[in-house]
Structures are given as structure tokens and as C-alpha cells.
Design goal:
By secondary structure, the protein is α+β, with helices and mostly antiparallel strands. 29% of the residues lie in helices and 20% in strands. It has one domain: 3-Layer(aba) Sandwich (Glutaredoxin), CATH 3.40.30.10. A hairpin with a 5-residue loop joins strand 2 and strand 3. The longest helix is centred in the middle third of the chain and has 17 residues.
């Protein structure tokens, strides 16, 4: 009897701590477009960017320390690559009812405070992040536009230092976008996203 209870408790713990399987895009998949509210009051979709060669889609938020640590680096990515055809599109995937500080009004304040140069969208109803398979904030998907289709080319982390930019040795997103702009086949297409879990009720 004691063994049975112990085995049950171990099973319960292992189940509770095991990662939830998340379906989503794989490398080479076509990402569907979306239309989400931006902090400026407009609705934004990928189709709005007629001259884009691709996109750096980043699932991020106001409340995760990892996301906050990356904000300046996300701004730098947009400033570096927007003019070259790869703008940043930031999406907050959290359910605002599940965590305080991620309402659209809070996002507007944060965007102004930090001087975001990119759209900061709210995933209303949490419909978009499951399609992508995002599990963390931040979580990046680099898309390349081909014949008006957005092809997934890279999934994962921005770089290899989730805490401080001073410790960065590998810039995964930059390497990916630079490679795509040069017409190269990417050698690194997936890395592990480090961050907070996406909040939902």
C-alpha cells in the first residue's frame, strides 16, 4: 500500500513537471498572417508590410524579467534590420486576466517608456502563439517572405545570454537574418528559448 502511494506521488510529480507538448510551426512551414491590435490603436498584420523581405516575430511581454532584459536588444534588432527588410513584430501572448501588468494599456505605457520602434501587439484570445508553438517570453520566429508566403527559417532564442548583453557570444537572430539576406542556407535553425512561461487561465 505504501509503495503504491509512493509510486502514485512520483507519477503525479513527474506529470506535473513534465513539459506540455506544444504543436506549432517547424522550419520550412508557412506562417499564416494575423491581425492584432497594436499599442497605437491600429490593427497590424504581416500583410501590411508590402516591402518586407521577412520578419523577426518575437513573443514577449511586460512582466517577464527575461523579456525586460532583452528589450534594448530587441530595439537594436529592429533598428538594424527594419531598413534592410526584416522588421521586428513583437507580440504579447499572455492572457492579461492571468497576470497583472500585461493589459494593452500597460503595453502602451511600456512602449512609450522604452521608445519601442516596432509594433507591440496583443494576442487577443491567445489565438496566435499556439499556431507558432511559442512557449516562452521571449521566443523568436524569423520568417522569410517568398512569393508572398512567410516561411519559417529560425525558431528559438535571440542570443546565448538571457540575462546580460555583456555575456553574449552567439547572436542567433542576427546570424539568421544576415544569412538570409546573403542568400545562404542557415546552419543553425533552432535553439532553445529561455524565458518565462506564457500565462493563461
Amino acid at each position: 500500500m505504501k509503495f503504491a502511494l509512493f509510486a502514485l506521488s512520483v507519477l503525479t510529480l513527474s506529470t506535473a513537471n513534465s513539459p506540455t507538448k506544444v504543436d506549432g510551426y517547424k522550419i520550412g512551414d508557412i506562417a499564416t498572417d494575423f491581425s492584432l491590435p497594436n499599442v497605437d490603436g491600429d490593427m497590424v498584420s504581416l500583410g501590411d508590410f508590402k516591402d518586407a523581405k521577412g520578419f523577426i516575430v518575437i513573443f514577449t511581454c511586460n512582466t517577464c524579467p527575461y523579456s525586460v532584459a532583452y528589450e534594448d536588444r530587441i530595439i537594436a534588432l529592429d533598428k538594424k534590420y527594419k531598413s534592410r527588410g526584416y522588421p521586428v513584430i513583437a507580440i504579447n501572448p499572455n492572457d492579461p486576466a492571468a497576470i497583472e501588468g500585461d493589459e494593452l494599456a500597460d503595453m502602451k505605457v511600456r512602449a512609450v517608456e522604452k521608445g519601442f520602434t516596432f509594433p507591440y501587439l496583443q494576442d487577443v484570445g491567445q489565438q496566435v502563439y499556439p499556431q507558432y508553438g511559442a512557449t516562452k517570453t521571449p521566443h523568436v520566429f524569423v520568417l522569410q517572405k517568398e512569393d508572398e508566403k512567410n516561411i519559417v527559417r529560425y525558431i528559438g532564442a535571440i542570443d546565448d545570454s538571457s540575462r546580460s548583453p555583456k555575456n553574449v557570444t552567439k547572436r542567433f537572430v542576427e546570424q539568421s537574418v544576415d544569412g538570409l539576406l546573403a542568400g545562404k542556407t542557415l546552419t543553425i535553425t533552432r535553439t532553445k528559448a529561455i524565458g518565462c512561461s506564457i500565462k493563461k487561465l
